[in-house]
Design a protein that fits this description.
The protein is an alpha/beta fold. Helices cover about 45% and strands about 15% of the residues.
Length: about 350
């Protein structure tokens, strides 16, 4: 048996492939278009005794997907492929429509055709697991209960709207065609191999290169932080035991304001990589104008995965953030390779520096 992991050279996808090969004996085929955040270095060293195959391609290429499904006798597809950065979706929403909506639709069409042709037993065992986000639910007030799987979708950014659209397509392919699907909606992930446009690796990179640490608005936006390894473990459980057609929210039980996160990163760097002269990193925090439509708070109720699978995050925010900062300190060559001229141009435009 073999699984197909789309977007498997990105942050969460690559961590999932590494986790999968370490925890199971099953091969994984990775399909990734290698856009700016997709990086084959994220999969470096994974030969897995022939259990890992990388294919450079797009989920919108239905012929390629169909050929891979048939040639490798795929028994499950895990769709991590997505444009995922809210800031970029504000500046260029069409790319998000192309990948997250049209790409997901074409992937579903290719998978449905393949699934239709399988023997009955293989059809029953097949799964399509779609990885999505808590941002589809919109924004919570300060005292609001965390998002549950039954909450109404109220996306507020082009990114969230395209992910909501993809979730609806996945549901529709199950309801209309019977395709055996599963959907997961996760909170903010952090950990190794995350492209340094997201908050935590951005702060680490800018701190170590002597730049200011830009924080949107008043820094009071709240996110539920989920260590990526815990997320991967939950996805494996959902794939193995999840009920077809259901949605599962996965959260880290780690609500923090953005400013709290930045201070936590700075405190670890003060200890692990002190600045010359001993000045604290937090004195380089700079508040910048808030981004349009910035959701104030996300929080996820993960009681369903806890109840049905016995899952719970192994990392607290304190342990996870220390592991994360340590990884970036130990892998500065990886950071240098991904922070190219195009990356510098992007950060200069986004933060006005």
């Amino acid at each position: 048996m073999t699984i197909l992991v789309t977007g498997g050279a990105g942050f969460i996808g690559a961590n999932f492939v590494r986790d999968w090969l370490a925890e199971t004996g099953e091969p994984a085929v990775v399909l990734d278009a290698l856009t700016y955040a997709g990086n084959p270095e994220n999969l470096a060293g994974l030969d897995g005794g022939g259990r890992h195959l990388f294919v450079h391609g797009d989920i919108g290429d239905m012929r390629l997907v169909a050929d891979l499904l048939r040639a490798r006798a795929i028994r499950a597809v895990l769709n991590f492929a997505a444009e995922s950065h809210v800031d970029r979706s504000i500046h260029g929403p069409e790319d998000f429509l192309r990948t997250n909506v049209v790409g997901t639709f074409r992937l579903l069409e290719a998978v449905r055709a393949y699934w239709d042709g399988l023997p009955a037993a293989d059809r029953a065992a097949f799964r399509f697991l779609h990885v999505s986000t808590d941002e589809v639910y919109g924004s919570l007030g300060a005292g609001g209960a965390p998002f549950t799987e039954g909450d109404r979708y109220e996306p507020n950014s082009p990114y969230a709207a395209t992910k909501a659209s993809s979730d609806h397509l996945v549901r529709a392919f199950h309801q209309t065609y019977g395709l055996p699907v599963l959907t997961t909606n996760c909170s903010n992930n952090y950990g190794p191999y995350q492209f340094p446009e997201k908050l935590i690796p951005l702060m680490i990179h800018r701190a170590l290169t002597g730049r200011t640490l830009p924080v949107y608005g008043d820094g009071g936006n709240v996110r539920d932080w989920l260590y990526v390894g815990d997320h991967c473990a939950a996805i494996r459980m959902v794939l193995a035991e999840g009920r077809v057609g259901e949605t599962y929210n996965i959260g880290g039980r780690g609500e923090k304001t953005n400013l709290e996160v930045v201070h936590a990163v700075c405190a670890i760097l003060d200890s692990e990589r002190p600045r010359p002269g001993g000045r604290p990193y937090h004195d380089r925090i700079a508040f910048v104008p808030d981004r349009p439509g910035h959701d104030r708070r996300y929080a996820v109720d993960a009681s369903r995965v806890a109840r049905e699978f016995g899952w719970a995050p192994r990392e607290t925010f304190d342990t996870g953030i220390r592991r994360t900062v340590r990884w970036y300190l130990d892998n500065e060559a990886w950071v240098r390779n991904v922070t190219t001229g195009a990356y510098r141009d992007w950060t200069a435009r986004q933060y006005g520096q």
